[in-house]
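stuck on this one:
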Amino acid sequence: MTAATHSTLFPQVPESADAVLDGLDPEQREVALALAGPVCVLAGAGTGKTRAITHRIAYGVRAGILQPTTVLAVTFTNRAAGEMRGRLRQLGATGVQARTFHSAALRQLQYFWPKAVGGALPRLVERKVQLVAEAAARCGVRLDRNELRDTTSEIEWAKVTQTVPADYPAAVAKTQRDAPRDPAELSQIYAMYEQLKRDRSVIDFEDVLLLTVGILQDRHDIAEHVRTQYQHFVVDEYQDVSPLQQRLLDLWLGDRDNLCVVGDASQTIYSFTGATPDHLLNFRTRHPNATVVKLVRDYRSTPQVVHLANGLLSQASGRAAEHRLELVSQREKGPEPSYTEYADEPAEAEGTARRIRDLIAAGVPAGEIAVLYRVNSQSEVYEQALADAGVPYQLRGAERFFDRAEVREAGVALRGAARAGGNDSLLDGAEGLPSEVRAVLSTKGWTSKPPNGSGAVRDRWESLAALVRLAEDFEQAKPGATLSDLVAELDERAAAQHAPTVQGVTLASLHSAKGLEWDAAFLVGLTEGMMPIAYAKTDEQVEEERRLLYVGVTRARFHLSLSWALSRSPGGRGGRRPTRFLNGLRPGSTAFGTRGGAGGGGGIDRGSATGTGSVGSGSAARPRRRGPVLCRVCGKTLTEAGEMKLMRCEDCPSDMDEGLYERLRQWRADRAKEIGQPAYCVFTDKTLMAIAERVPDTEGELVVIAGVGNRKLTRFGADVLDICAGRTLEPEPGAGDDDV
């Protein structure tokens, strides 16, 4: 998938260096021309920062000011690096290295290791989690799946902040970090993990940076070799650098200042990994003579979307908020953002799928629509709703395009057909490049019509269809192109990870949506506890959640939908509240304790036929404020809804009465059949498990179990209490004549 790219057409390479500057606005042009000394580009969302820095590099190369092999552009994801390489290639600036920090460091480490240390570079460990689990076991600590993930992330944080195991507890105290376990215990696991790596001669991802830093610090001859090779540096997404990455950058630079950094403090959303905007905000202090350019012309989003984005940041606090950029939309007026309240999460997913289907019917390509959520576990209900609505989708964060098995197979088939030329019977009757590609790929699963439903078959078809569209665009841009020309183009794109667009609605977390954009974005699940997330306790953590929502809002070019559900399941107590970040921005709401929140404007609809009251009307029940929900077995704070319903961690031992649970399931199936509703409309599996674990004797004990509530207590309470007491149920007169 190509980020921020509205077309896969192939632009013509500019004829001259001056032609590279054509089409840049005054501020972007200033960036492109600032080729000497330190440069800091403060670039708001949608302001064309990638365009500005790639044109800057291309202009310098094409004008002969920069030698391409001496330029190193670094960013944070392989996708972003691939896009940068693709754009530079289209501008005629081949030979420039555009890599992630880790990729650049690994390349240097592999080259210099024999000279600096001797022998072969240790193997890069593929499954860090397994090694962390073994380290914990050797320390006598049992970690469940979630704890293992959190402990691994904590070790990664310690390493990128250059914190050794012995210093970890002090670092946690100093930074007021919310450690997932006792810091002393984590310090022991961390130390054992490092010992296991040494014993097995393996290194991890973070070691790549640490070892490169160590070699450059200790070996001045090697450091000078690198500085001779790379004399000009560009760093994208500079607000996301960690202390370790900054240290590596300083060593690359030495005493020089040919550095251009680009970033936006308002898009700092990775502090949990050790990223900090301080390096961006302090750039002028470190480089008093720096050229600072602000990009605020938003070419991505309509004035209505930009108005909401600016409104979100106007209520922010903290240092990043003090440096916020006020965006100015350069686009024509568009529709107002919509704010939709649903009765429950399935209704929200179904309503979202219906609206997406309507947009597609109105001409918006499926590939230009995204559903964005806070955590990955929210995707399942939307996958089902889109599949039920017959809407194709793709999950963000899956395998890279050119690494997919079907794409590799297609490449082999196309290469073979290109070599065979007219001797390949597959090409008999095929006229023109697109027809030849369709003929070849038809042997790999491509058909003129997509397969029904979703899943692996549909994913494979979408990949092949993207290659067909690429061939169509390629021929349009280069009339008379041959199959061999296309194969060469695919090879170049694969090397640059410059993937074509796969058609299908994108499902993605807000974090993984960073750097991408769509014609329409649906931001879903915007309730307190999810946005901000429940474990965001400090002011700094809450403000990062606000910035995360800002990133989500600014992904939309034209259509923006924000929605939330009052309960998790159908029939549940509607006690949820929409996120506080929309107070004063959505219609009918008031900003509390904020500074100058902008009026949101925009239309509103309620989205659910069940009727939940007007948004902001106060008709929904307000939940009482409660403290953290603790596991009744181990005492750990619970954050997952399913665990909170059970009042225990998923992996903690259950004292559930299995026989009672099966009787409840059979009763639920009978009742669901009687009332003509799905089983979950009676009670969900988790609620039945909670009932079977707690075996309530009274209505008071039953009603407090999550997922029951007064309405279901009235409807089903007597039956459930009878089953829990072991009594035989009497048939209900007229069963099946009324609805839930």
